[in-house]
Amino acid sequence: MSDHVVPVRVYLAVFAALMVLTVLTVAVWRMDLGVFATPVALGIAILKAVLVILFFMHVKYNNKLAQLVAASGFFFLVILFGITILDY
Fold it and tell me: What is the Rg, in whole angstroms, of the alpha carbon atoms belonging to the chain?
């Protein structure tokens, strides 16, 4: 198994994207989107989580089994959030 070396510019780009998405989250919070506020905020949060999982947890560069485990964990997290939202 060889280790994949990720260039620093990739980490900086992902960090910049996370910062932009954080600013976007705050902007959405300040806007009055009505019923769409929660789905938009959750969409941004999911996108940020995917970026962290893929790059900072190195799932993007790992083998297929590790990717499947990470994807299934994320899938079941989405299911649990869905069940919670249905209860709310």
Answer: 16
CB atoms < 10 A from the CB of 47, how many?
14
Alpha-carbon distance of 70 to 74, in angstroms, equals 6
- Residue for token pair 């994807």: 71
Rounded alpha-carbon distances, angstroms, from residue 7 to 10, 46, 64, 69, 81: 6, 24, 22, 25, 34
In 3D space, the residue among 50, 31, 49, 52 whose CA is nearest the CA of residue 40 turns out to be 31
Dihedral Cα 37, 40, 42, 48, nearest 10 deg:
-140
Q: What is the pLDDT of residues 25-79, one digit of tens each?
A: 999 989 988 888 888 998 999 899 989 988 888 888 888 888 898 889 888 988 9
Do 33 and 10 form a contact (C-beta atoms < 8 A)?
Answer: no
